[in-house]
Amino acid sequence: MYKTMKLIIWSCMVVMLVLSAGCRSSRGIQLDEYFRQVEVGRSNATDVLNMLPEEEMLHTTSSVSILNKKGWSREVGIVTFNQADSLVQRKIYLRRHSDLLLERIYLFIQTVVPAEVLEEPYENDMRKHVAILRHCHETMIEDVKPFAEDQETVSQMGLARTGLGLGILKLADQPRDADQLLQPGGFKFKHSTLGRCQLNLGQIGENVFTVELRSKAVVDIFTGW
After folding, report:
1. Is the pLDDT reported for residue 23 higher than 90?
2. Average pLDDT, whole number, for the chain?
């Protein structure tokens, strides 16, 4: 009986999604369009404050946080500045979206990686790449701390951070697949909550790297988020 009711509810949800698909923009909210303008190592604090919308913005002396919510979508962004010259040290953008059937997460990090990480004598490239990813994982923790009272930001960033953390562990356990990290298809793994994940690492400057994490999971309509 329970399985039958669950199937009926699921079918109704699918129908509702199909009927409403033409009424909602598939692009959702677009905080990412603002974040694309922020350049790590080039934009300064004043530039960032002028680029990003003031709504839902929180800021400290060395960082800015912004949250955007619309329907089943959430966007969170954090920008941190170098205290010496106020240039952007790192930007983190997270988008989480559910369309009733699937939940998708996209995490993008662009950061200056310090010399002590890059100049370490690693055994091979895989070790170096893992070290860069770990640096990004650790800085995510630090970047969220100034906004600890904003529980939504902490929660969303925390979930994405678990995905990145697991990806790092999987990568270290599968050294033969390490080269996938630099390829368009990325390094693939599964997360108990986020589902199927893809992790990419890129380099856009001598010490500026990008990390991208994409995930896709079937939504539990009886639990939600």
Report:
1. no
2. 86
Task: Tell me the residue range of the domain where 148 lies.
Answer: 2-218
Residue 85 maps to a domain? yes
> Nearest CA to 106 among 187, 44, 173, 164?
164
Number of structural domains found in the chain: 1
Tokens of 108: 């993008």
Residue 100 lies in a domain: yes
Residues 196, 178: Cα–Cα separation, whole Å:
17
The stretch 121-131 carries a mean pLDDT of 93
Q: Give the pLDDT confidence of 54-64 residue by residue, as tens digits.
A: 888 999 989 99
Contact 125, 177 (CB under 8 A): no
Full 3-state SS string of the chain? CHHHHHHHHHHHHHHHHHHHHHHCCCCCCCHHHHHCCCCCCCCEHHHHHHHCCCCCEEECCCEEEEEEEECCEEEEEEEEECCCCCEEEEEEEEEEEECCCEEEEEEEEEEECCHHHHCCCCCCHHHHHHHHHHHHHHHHHHHHHHHCCCHHHHHHHHHHHHHHHHHHHHHHHCHHHHHHHHCCCCEEEEECCCEEEEEEEEECCCCEEEEEEEEEEECCCCCCC
